[in-house]
Amino acid sequence: MFSCNTSTSGHSTFLLTGFPGLEASHYWVSIPINLICVFSILGNGIILLLICMDPALREPMYIFLSMLAASDLGLCASTFPTMMWLFWLGARELPFDLCAAQMFFIHAFTYVESGVLLAMAFDRFVAIREPLHYATILTHSAMAKVGAAILVRAVLLNLPGPILLRHLLFPQISVLSHCYCLHCDLVGLACSDTQINSLVGLVSIIFSLGLDSSLIVLSYALILQTVLGIASPGEQLKALNTCVSHLCVVLIFYLPKLGLSVLHRVEKHSYPALAVLMANLHFLVPPIMNPIVYCIKSKKIRQSLLKHFQHKRVDVF
């Protein structure tokens, strides 16, 4: 920890942290991270292209899926550069402005993804509860408004963070806990009073991840209530099967965050490498797993992918 005796506002340098005890192996650590980055961009890019090009995928569920893929690409673009900078080039220094910008985009895209998952939960609820009115409720206009609201909320909730951070004093050099910048990490390194910053961060989390996760649970409780009211066991299973992909994606998004939160409060100092690994995985796993889950579970996406692949083969021959 560096001294606060030479603290400054807005001109500090932050040092990225890799895996404690594995500094000599960072080059090798970068190889799987590079592969995850490439496959995440390819997977989400393909999903976006398929939904844009195939008229059969213009249904609300797939339009929300395209929003999810776009948010995953944004999250990749926000986190992977500093990971590569550290693990591949061995560069640790990050100026304040770049760190604050990265923090804003990481949290914004995380909140966008959380909001899209809530919208997808509502989509499944309407599809099962009101199947006859599904097309009239989830129109293209309604989905555009939902997407805009999710984006505006993410920006408004995260905008105060970087602005307030500029008024805090930091040591000339500060060591971050991760290989990217997060609001809670920066607030913890400040030398001045951070009560307002902590309160803003807490309110931001409550009105994004907290609210979204609660409403997702409520949506599935209502879905379960509706499904149990269906007389035929076969129809019950069919209805629940339409939610499997979304449930998997929700668990992939929220469980690593829950595990990291528990680890930070229980054994963070006993297993620092494990804490860093979990911190990296909770940003690395969703972007690469979401396309895989939907490609495995969605017949329409598989058919669209196969159709475009066959067209490409015909063109080549």
From TrEMBL:
It comes from the Eukaryota. Keywords: Cell membrane, G-protein coupled receptor, Membrane, Olfaction, Receptor, Sensory transduction, Transducer, Transmembrane, Transmembrane helix. GO terms for molecular function: G protein-coupled receptor activity; olfactory receptor activity. It is found in: Cell membrane; Membrane. The keyword Membrane applies. It is a multi-pass membrane protein. One of its GO terms (biological process) is cellular response to lipid. One of its GO terms (cellular component) is plasma membrane. Residues 43-294 form the G-protein coupled receptors family 1 profile domain. The chain crosses the membrane at residues 27-51, 63-88, 100-122, 134-156, 199-224, 236-255, 275-296. Coiled coil: none annotated. Its main location: membrane. InterPro entries: GPCR_Rhodpsn (IPR000276), GPCR_Rhodpsn_7TM (IPR017452), Olfact_rcpt (IPR000725), OR51/52/56-like (IPR050402). SUPFAM superfamilies: Family A G protein-coupled receptor-like. Putative odorant or sperm cell receptor. Belongs to the G-protein coupled receptor 1 family. This is Olfactory receptor. The gene is LOC106966083.
